[in-house]
Structures are given as structure tokens and as C-alpha cells.
Write a structure and sequence with these properties.
Blueprint (H helix, E strand, L loop, with lengths): L1 H7 L1 H18 L3 H17 L3 H17 L3 H18 L2 H10 L8 H5 L13 H8 L1 H12 L4 H16 L3 E8 L2 E9 L4 E8 L1 E4 L2 E4 L3 H10 L3 E3 L12 H6 L3 E9 L2 E10 L8 H100 L5 H15 L7 H16 L6 H10 L10 H4 L4 H39 L8 E3 L1 H11 L1 H4 L3 E7 L5 E3 L1 H18 L4 E10 L2 E8 L29 H11 L3 E7 L2 E9 L3
Parallel strand pairs: 10-12
Antiparallel strand pairs: 1-2, 1-8, 2-3, 4-5, 6-7, 7-8, 9-11, 12-13, 13-15, 14-15
């Protein structure tokens, strides 16, 4: 209803509506909104000459600031309320204010005489005073904004913005004392540029040049006297006219004021206006003085908070460094265990590599012989054949070069007998020897189509060349297989020995790490251990892959030892919900019940002194824990199963 009245007749009702809205805002905790509404209500009441409501609005605003603990602001409003009630002639209300707010009104000379004087002053006589008091509203809001900021760089930026907006300065500096040195920690200009926390000295010194940023003499004066200094025309008036900075930049208006907190200097504000003389009026200086106390407290609090943040950051860094050292030590311990296990594997790995190397050497020797034989005979043979026979010969040799037949010894014997009979039926001499070469070269499928060629006087020589070419292919395959075998062993060895210093997770298939370990243990496993793999189709996981390889190494190595090198290892990898589950089961003797609760303890081992560190399973558990996983086991005589569960998404 009041809103409707205010809209229809703002002259009579707007200030009342604004005052009610201000009270509702402060009850709702909307403090900034309440501040605005109180000031608007006061201004509206003043404009329409409702002095009694102007007094009430000021009184309520004073109560608002008292609740916030801002006595200096409350004092401004209560003094204004007092004068308005005085102008209205409300003597009993004045007595009420004097009783309730005696401390805030103690500086008013009017209070000491009001009881003995008639109240005859008119409202118009006090109007200018009210206008001046209203100038403090912006400062009150600025003080509120400053007091709420605790981050130092943001506070300095906000403070410089407020100073330039409310003092008429075109540029300004905020100087703070750090380690007994005065440093510029904030600077701003009316073009909107603001820089904070640069810790710049008052004068920049370059080779053969001294850059003056402000008048250090003025700064030193204010620091020493702890009093504000205003120069209306610094070039021609005051004690600083001969200062190099003043002369060089022809400075006009200067305002330099200390920021004091309980008498202690917190900082110095230095403001300039080089366009206007007398820019910093007494009123603006008073506003700055009013604001300076709040600014000094805010700066001290923010610097304390900033220092605490730095100390916390330093302490956090120390803790981080300690944690990194612990991680490094653990990684080195894991790597040490890997190298110890690798030492036990060296003999078997050497044998595994020597076997394919021997195969390569033998294949190279056979290749050399076959190549020499075929190359020496072929040029002599071709001129002895007619064009049709040459075509059949090249087709025959081409079949030998592409031979990929793999037969068992028994199958070869049976086929050789069949081919021998086939050749003998066509009266081909030396049929048994030719059948042997034909079957070994893998040409037995095409004998019928080549009978005419084999019946020529050069048939034996053609078959021999085809056999040599087939041997070239066979030896090439042997070399390739041996190289792949050696490459797999070397890759497994490198994968196992690798130490990832980055400390980063990698996306891998868990089965790749398991296969790396099985490859390294191949020489041990082939002597009497059957490995049964049951791998489901599982997704990759993000993990510390090298460390998980150590887990599989320890578990597989322990399984081989538990079976004394003979038995069966079953490895099952599956996905259950959002986890990858690896189960490694051996057919060994089992873990005795009396030690089952100790096997993950550091330095516990059942091996003789000098044969084990007792850290294997303890490290395994740490690695699994690092992956936020779980490891457990079930062991009975003749069967032990270790189960490792790793989350897919860490």
C-alpha cells in the first residue's frame, strides 16, 4: 500500500516508504541495500522538508551502524538526527538522545546548552549542514567495502579505486613499510590502471639515470610527523618547492596522509592532481581522515592474513617436500626389490636369449649354403631348357619360394611314399630321392602338373634348385621367429627394469604387465610349471604400471617357489563392477596358518638369513593400497589364491 502511495505522491510518501524498506532490508541481512535506502530516505525527507522524518531516518541509520560496531559512522548520523530534532523543536526527544547516546553526542557544544535555551532555529538555516553531512554516505559505503576485504592485493586495489573516486586525485600511491623499507605496494591513475604488490622502491635507479615516481621528501615528512599534508600548489607554495620531483613534473595539488592504527603507522597515502591547483579541499581531507582509520585496520589485518597465508604455503611446501621424499624412498625400495628379483632371473634370461641367437646363427649358415647352390646352378640350367620348359621351371621354383606348408614327421613319411610311387609310375629315375626333396620343399601338391618337367634329363637338378630355394624361405622364417623371440625377451626385460620417474599414471591393460613377468619367468616355467590363463575382455585402467608389474612379479615368483618349480599356476583376470580382479592360484604347499596374519608385515620372511628382505609382500600391499585397491588370500594345503582388486577409475 505504501508503494502505491509513494508512486502516486512521492513528495509526501516516498521518504516514508524508503525508510520502511531500509528497516526491512537490514532485518533481512541485506546491509548494502539498507545503507542505500537509509540515505535515500534521508535525502527525500530533506528535499520535501519533512524535518521530523529526516531526524527519524538519521536516528534509525545511526542504530544500524551501531549494530555493526561502526561508532564513528553512527556518530555522524546521530549528530544529524540531533540537529534535525532541535530544528523541529522536539525538546524531550533531544533529552532522550542525550541520555541514550551521550558518548556519541559529547562533542556537540549544543548539547551542553540546549536544556537552557529556547529552540527557535528554522529548518532552512540548517539545510547546508545537512547537505554536507550527506557527503559522508559515500565514505561510509567505502569503509564497509574496505572492512569486508581480507585479501591484501584485492584490498589495495579497492582502496586505491575508492581514493581516486572520492578525493579528486588523478593518480595515487599507497606506501607500506616492509623490513624497515618504504615500498610502493599500490599505484593507480584515473585511466583505470591499478597495480598492486609490486614492492617498488620510491625511486628507481638505472645506469646513469634516476627515475622519480613521487616526492620521497613529502613521504618522509608524513612518516616522521604522522600528520597529513596538503599542498594546493606544490610548485610555488610550501617547503617542497625545490624538490627535484616537484620541479621536474611541475606538480600542482598534493595530498599525503598517514594511515594510523592505534597511533602506529600502517601506511601512507600519496595523491596528486597535476591539472588543478587546490584540488584537495579541507572537506576531502576530512573525508580521507575519516576513512584512514578503517583503511589502516584493514591493511594491518590483510597483511597479517597475507603473512599467515605465506607461512601456511611454506609449511605446506615443506610437508609436500617431505611427502615427495617418502614417495621417492618407497619408489627406490620398490626398484631395489625389482632389481633383486631380476638378479635371480638373469641366468634363465641369458639362456632364453642364447637359444634364439643359436637358431639365427644356424639359419644364416644354411641360408648361405642354399643361396650359393641355387645361384651357381640356375645360370647353367636355363640355357639347356626350351622356352616352355623354362616357364614350367620358373613356376615350379615360384611354388617353392612361396611354400608355407608345415607337416609333422609322420605326415612327411606318408606323403614321401605316395610321391615316390607316383614318380615311379612315370618311370622317373631316382624317384625316392626326388620325393624326399619335393616333400621337404612343400611341392608335393603340384607333382602331377610337373611330371613332364621332371621327366627331362634336368629334372633332378630342377628339384634340387627348388629345394634350395625352399630352404632359403624356411631359414628366413627361422631367423624371423628367433628375432621375435629375442625381441620379446628384451622388451619384457626392459619393461620390467624400467623405472618411471614421472610419477604419473598411465592407461594400460593389466594383462600386459602379467605377460611381461611370465615372459621373464619362461625358462623356469617350462621346466615343470603349467600356466593356465583365463583372461576376460577387460578395459584399460589408469595406474602406476611399473609398480603393478612388481606386484605380479612377487606373486608369481612366490607361487613358483611354493611349488618347488613343479605344478600349476592359474591366472584369472576379470571385471567385477567397477574393479579389475586378478586371481593368482598355485598348487603349492600352502601358507601355514600360524604365519598367515604376518605375511604382509615388514621384514617378515620364512627364508633363511640373507635370502630374503621380508619386504616383498609388504611392498605389494603398499602398491595395491596406493591404487586404492585391496589384496587378500586364501590358503589351504595344496592350493593358495592371492586376489588383487584394483578400481578401474582411480
Amino acid at each position: 500500500q505504501m508503494k502505491i502511495w509513494a508512486d502516486n505522491c512521492p513528495e509526501n510518501f516516498l521518504h516514508k516508504y524508503l525508510l520502511v524498506a531500509a528497516e526491512m532490508a537490514q532485518f533481512s541481512g541485506e546491509e548494502l541495500k539498507a545503507m542505500e535506502l537509509y540515505d535515500q530516505a534521508i535525502a527525500s525527507a530533506q528535499e520535501n522538508q519533512f524535518i521530523q522524518n529526516e531526524a527519524l531516518a538519521n536516528e534509525l541509520a545511526a542504530k544500524f551502524w551501531l549494530r555493526k560496531g561502526k561508532e564513528e559512522f553512527a556518530q555522524l548520523y546521530i549528530e544529524k538526527a540531533y540537529y534535525c530534532y532541535q530544528l523541529w523543536g522536539a525538546k524531550h526527544k533531544l533529552e532522550d538522545l542525550e541520555e541514550k547516546y551521550s558518548q556519541l553526542l559529547s562533542q556537540l557544544s549544543t548539547v551542553r546548552t540546549i536544556k537552557n535555551q529556547p529552540i527557535t532555529t528554522t529548518y532552512q538555516a540548517n539545510k547546508n549542514y545537512s547537505v554536507n553531512l550527506l557527503d559522508f554516505a559515500a565514505v561510509m559505503k567505502a569503509s564497509q567495502a574496505i572492512s569486508e576485504e581480507i585479501v591484501l592485493d584485492k584490498l589495495l586495489e579497492k582502496l586505491m579505486t575508492i581514493l581516486l573516486e572520492n578525493t579528486g586525485a588523478r593518480s595515487g600511491f599507497l606506501i607500506l613499510e616492509t623490513n624497515n623499507k618504504l615500498l610502493i605496494e599500490a599505484e593507480a591513475s584515473v585511466d583505470g590502471t591499478i597495480a598492486t604488490l609490486q614492492s617498488r622502491p620510491l625511486q628507481l635507479v638505472k645506469p646513469n639515470e634516476q627515475i622519480l615516481l613521487l616526492s620521497s621528501a613529502i613521504i618522509n615528512y608524513v612518516m616522521r610527523t604522522k600528520e597529513s599534508l596538503v599542498l594546493d600548489d606544490a610548485m610555488h607554495q610550501g617547503n617542497f618547492t625545490n624538490q627535484p620531483y616537484i620541479q621536474k613534473y611541475q606538480v600542482k595539488s598534493v595530498l599525503c596522509a598517514p594511515l594510523l592504527n592505534q597511533g602506529k603507522l600502517s601506511g601512507i597515502v600519496y595523491l596528486e592532481n597535476n591539472l588543478t591547483k587546490g584540488a584537495f579541499t579541507p572537506e576531502r581531507l576530512e573525508l580521507l581522515k575519516l576513512l584512514s582509520g578503517e583503511a589502516a585496520i584493514a591493511i594491518d589485518n590483510a597483511r597479517l592474513y597475507h603473512n599467515l597465508e605465506q607461512k601456511v604455503a611454506e609449511r605446506t611446501q615443506e610437508l609436500s617436500d617431505t611427502l615427495n621424499e617418502l614417495k621417492t624412498t618407497q619408489n627406490e625400495l620398490i626398484q631395489s626389490e625389482k632389481m633383486a628379483a631380476l638378479g635371480q632371473l638373469v641366468a634363465g634370461i641369458a639362456h632364453e636369449i642364447n637359444t634364439p641367437l643359436g637358431a639365427i646363427r644356424a639359419a644364416i649358415g644354411n641360408t648361405d649354403k642354399a643361396l650359393q647352390a641355387s645361384l651357381s646352378q640356375l645360370p647353367q640350367l636355363l640355357p639347356l631348357l626350351n622356352p616352355q620348359q623354362q616357364t614350367h621351371c620358373f613356376n615350379f621354383l615360384q611354388l617353392a619360394a612361396n611354400n608355407q606348408t608345415s607337416l609333422s614327421t609322420r605326415e612327411k613319411r606318408q606323403i614321401k611314399r605316395t610321391v615316390t610311387k607316383q614318380l615311379e609310375s612315370h618311370n622317373i629315375t631316382n624317384a625316392k630321392q626326388l620325393a624326399h626333396l619335393i616333400v621337404e620343399a612343400g611341392l608335393h601338391h603340384n607333382v602331377a602338373s610337373q611330371i613332364s618337367l621332371l621327366q627331362t634329363p634336368h629334372g633332378n637338378q630342377i628339384v634340387q634348385i627348388a629345394y634350395d630355394i625352399a630352404r632359403l624361405y624356411s631359414n628366413s622364417q627361422n631367423i624371423n621367429n628367433a628375432v621375435e623371440r629375442a625381441s620379446k625377451i628384451v622388451f619384457a626385460l626392459k619393461s620390467y627394469a624400467r623405472y618411471d620417474h614421472s610419477g604419473e599414471k598411465h592407461s594400460v591393460h593389466i594383462t600386459d604387465g602379467i605377460e611381461t613377468v611370465l615372459e621373464l619367468y619362461h625358462n623356469y616355467l617350462k621346466k615343470g610349471v603349467e600356466v593356465v590363463r583365463n583372461y576376460q575382455d577387460i578395459p584399460k585402467i589408469l595406474c602406476y604400471a611399473d609398480e603393478l608389474v612388481q606386484v605380479w612379479t612377487n606373486l608369481i615368483h612366490n607361487a613358483i617357489q611354493a611349488m618347488d618349480g613343479k605344478g600349476k599356476i592359474e591366472i584369472e583376470v576379470s571385471q567385477k563392477n567397477q574393479n579389475i580382479v586378478v586371481e593368482i592360484t598355485d598348487s603349492g604347499t600352502g601358507i601355514p596358518p600360524e604365519i598367515q596374519d604376518k605375511i604382509f608385515q615388514p621384514f617378515f620372511t620364512t627364508k633363511p638369513a640373507g635370502e630374503g628382505s621380508g619386504l616383498g609382500l609388504e611392498i605389494v600391499k603398499k602398491i595395491v593400497d596406493k591404487h586404492q585397491g585391496k589384496i587378500n588370500f586364501i590358503s589351504v594345503p595344496g592350493k593358495t589364491t592371492f586376489t588383487v582388486t584394483i578400481p578401474i577409475e582411480l
